[in-house]
C-alpha cells in the first residue's frame, strides 16, 4: 500500500518530540542507507573544543586521552525523562555504491551494553573505541550509538564526527587525514543535515578549514550554525571583531553564530564537573566587558541546547513529507528491478519455467527468420506492381481483346458458348503463367521450412544436461544484486510500517 503524500500527515503527531522519535526509529531500522534523514552533525578541528561542547550538552564526560579521541561517528540520542536509562551499541558500516547517501549502516547487535547512570557512558565508549583500534581502525566509519533518557537531558539527537587533522604522529597512518575529510564531506553533502561547525575564537575563523568546507557544502548558509568556543582566549583588542561576527554582521549565515565557554584543559585536569563548568560559563559572560553585551540567546551551552532542539524540529518538520515521497519512489524502483531480474533459479519449478521461456523465445526467433526469408522470395517473384499474385480482370480483358472471331454470323446460343470458351481460354492462359511462377516459390518455401527445422533440431541437440546446467547457473553478481534489492525493499517496507504505526489515524465519523 502506497503511503499518501500529505503535507498535513505529521500534524497528527502529538508533538515535535514524536516526530524526532519517528526519525530515530527510521534511522534505527537502517532507512538512512537509502533515504537521507534529517539530522544534526557536529564537526570541527581536533583542537576546536568539540568534545567539551558535547560533554556540556549531554552531561557525559567523553574520553579525552590522546590515543582514544573520537575515531568514529558517535551518535547521541538524548531524551528528557523522569529517570535515567540508556544503552551503548556499535553499528557497523559498509560502502553501498547504489544508495542515495553512499553509506550502509547496519546494527549487528554486538557489544550492546546497558547503562545505569551517566557515569557508565565514558567507559562504554572507551571500550568500543579500543575495540576499533585493536581491529586496526585508527579512523572508522563504524558508528557508536549512545541512547540516553534522563531528567537533565534535552530532547535532541546529534552525531559527533572525528575532528579534522592536518598532521599525524610518527606511527600513525597518513591516510587518516583524507579519511576524516571524506567522512566529514559525506555528512556535509547531505541536504537534510544541519552542520554545527565548531571553531575556536582564538584563531582566524574566516579561514578555518571547517567553515570553508561548510561554505562549499552549504553556500547559502541555510543549514549551518557556527559555534564559537574558547572566547576566553581571544586576544585583547580582537574582541570587537568576534563580537560583530557573533551578531552575524560578517560572513552571514541563516542560522547564525553562538558563543560558548566550556571547561578548559586546566579545569578538566583539576576535575571541574560539567555542572560547575556551566556555572562558570554563566558568570564569565555576565561579567565580561564585550560578551555581556551579547543578546543572551547567543551565548551559553543551555541556550545553545534550546536553539539546537528548535533547529532540529524545524528540519524534521520540513523533511518528513519528502522522506515519505522518496520511500514510495525508491520502493517502486526496487520492486520493478526485482521483477525484471526474476526469481532465483534454485527450485525445479523455477528452472522449468525459465527453460519454457527460452524455448518459446527460440521458437519465436526462428519463426521470424523463416517469415523474413519467405517474404523476401515473394517480393522477388512478385514485384510491387502485381504482388497480389492473382488473375486480375484486366489481364483477362487484355487477352480477350487480342482474340478475333472473324466475320462469322452465329446464333445467340452459339455466340454465348463461343464467348464462354474464349473467356475460359484467356483465363487459363493467364493462370498458367501464374502457376509456373508459384510452383518454384512453393518449393523454396518447403526447402526453407526444412532448413529451419534442421537448425532447430541441431540447436536443441547441443543442450545437454551440462549445457542446460550452465545456462541455469546464476552469476554471483546477479544473485547479489537481487539480494541487495530484496534487502532494500524489506527496509523500505519496514519504514512504511513504522510511519503508519507512529502517525495516529483520525477518529472515524459515525
Automatic annotation (TrEMBL):
Segments forming domain GED: 417-507
PANTHER family in alphabetical order: DYNAMIN, DYNAMIN RELATED PROTEIN 1, ISOFORM A
Entry's Gene Ontology molecular function annotations: GTP binding; GTPase activity; microtubule binding
Pfam families according to UniProt: Dynamin_M, Dynamin_N, GED
Record InterPro entries: Dynamin (IPR022812), Dynamin_GTPase (IPR001401), Dynamin_N (IPR045063), Dynamin_stalk (IPR000375), G_DYNAMIN_dom (IPR030381), GED (IPR003130), GED_dom (IPR020850), P-loop_NTPase (IPR027417)
Protein name: Dynamin-type G domain-containing protein
Keywords: GTP-binding, Nucleotide-binding
All residue ranges annotated as the Dynamin-type G domain in the record: 34-321
GO terms for cellular component: cytoplasm; membrane; microtubule
Amino acid at each position: 500500500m502506497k503511503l499518501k503524500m500529505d503535507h498535513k500527515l505529521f500534524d497528527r503527531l502529538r508533538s515535535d518530540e514524536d516526530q524526532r522519535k519517528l526519525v530515530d526509529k527510521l534511522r534505527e531500522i537502517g532507512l538512512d542507507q537509502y533515504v537521507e534523514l534529517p539530522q544534526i552533525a557536529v564537526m570541527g578541528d581536533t583542537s576546536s573544543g568539540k568534545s567539551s561542547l558535547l560533554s556540556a550538552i549531554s552531561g557525559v564526560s567523553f574520553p579525552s586521552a590522546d590515543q582514544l579521541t573520537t575515531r568514529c561517528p558517535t551518535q547521541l540520542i538524548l531524551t528528557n525523562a523522569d529517570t535515567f536509562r540508556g544503552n551503548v551499541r556499535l553499528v557497523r558500516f559498509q560502502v553501498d555504491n547504489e544508495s542515495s547517501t553512499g553509506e550502509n549502516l547496519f546494527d549487528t547487535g554486538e557489544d550492546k551494553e546497558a547503562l545505569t547512570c551517566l557515569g557508565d557512558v565514558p567507559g562504554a565508549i572507551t571500550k568500543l573505541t579500543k575495540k576499533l583500534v585493536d581491529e586496526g581502525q585508527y579512523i572508522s566509519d563504524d558508528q557508536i550509538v549512545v541512547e540516553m533518557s534522563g531528567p537533565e537531558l534535552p530532547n535532541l539527537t546529534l552525531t559527533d564526527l572525528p575532528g579534522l587533522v592536518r598532521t599525524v604522529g610518527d606511527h600513525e597512518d597518513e591516510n587518516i587525514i583524507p579519511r576524516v575529510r571524506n567522512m566529514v564531506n559525506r555528512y556535509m553533502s547531505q541536504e537534510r543535515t544541519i552542520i554545527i561547525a565548531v571553531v575556536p575564537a582564538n584563531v582566524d575563523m574566516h579561514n578555518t578549514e571547517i567553515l570553508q568546507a561548510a561554505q562549499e557544502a552549504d553556500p547559502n548558509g541555510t543549514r549551518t550554525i557556527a559555534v564559537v568556543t574558547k572566547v576566553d582566549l581571544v586576544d585583547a583588542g580582537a574582541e570587537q571583531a568576534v563580537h560583530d561576527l557573533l551578531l552575524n554582521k560578517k560572513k552571514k549565515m541563516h542560522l547564525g553564530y553562538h558563543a560558548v565557554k566550556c571547561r578548559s584543559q586546566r579545569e578538566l585536569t583539576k576535575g571541574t564537573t560539567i555542572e560547575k563548568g556551566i556555572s562558570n560559563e554563566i558568570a564569565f559572560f555576565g561579567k565580561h566587558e564585550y560578551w555581556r553585551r551579547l543578546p543572551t540567546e547567543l551565548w551559553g551551552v543551555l541556550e545553545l541546547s534550546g536553539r539546537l532542539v528548535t533547529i532540529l524540529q524545524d528540519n524534521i518538520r520540513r523533511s518528513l513529507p519528502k522522506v515519505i515521497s522518496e520511500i514510495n519512489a525508491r520502493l517502486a524502483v526496487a520492486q520493478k528491478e526485482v521483477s525484471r531480474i526474476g526469481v532465483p533459479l534454485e527450485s525445479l519449478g523455477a528452472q522449468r519455467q525459465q527453460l519454457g521461456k527460452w524455448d518459446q523465445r527460440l521458437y519465436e526467433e526462428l519463426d521470424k527468420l523463416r517469415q523474413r526469408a519467405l517474404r523476401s522470395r515473394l517480393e522477388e517473384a512478385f514485384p510491387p506492381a502485381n504482388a497480389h499474385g492473382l488473375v486480375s480482370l484486366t489481364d483477362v480483358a487484355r487477352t480477350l481483346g487480342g482474340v478475333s472471331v472473324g466475320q462469322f454470323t452465329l446464333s445467340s446460343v452459339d455466340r454465348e458458348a463461343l464467348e464462354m470458351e474464349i473467356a475460359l481460354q484467356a483465363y487459363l492462359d493467364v493462370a498458367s503463367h501464374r502457376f509456373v511462377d508459384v510452383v518454384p516459390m512453393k518449393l523454396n518455401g518447403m526447402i526453407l521450412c526444412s532448413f529451419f527445422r534442421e537448425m532447430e533440431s541441431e540447436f536443441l541437440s547441443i543442450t545437454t544436461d551440462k549445457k542446460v546446467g550452465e545456462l541455469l547457473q546464476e552469476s554471483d553478481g546477479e544473485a547479489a544484486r537481487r539480494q541487495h534489492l530484496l534487502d532494500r525493499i524489506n527496509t523500505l517496507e519496514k519504514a512504511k510500517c513504522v510511519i503508519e504505526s507512529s502517525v495516529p489515524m483520525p477518529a472515524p465519523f459515525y
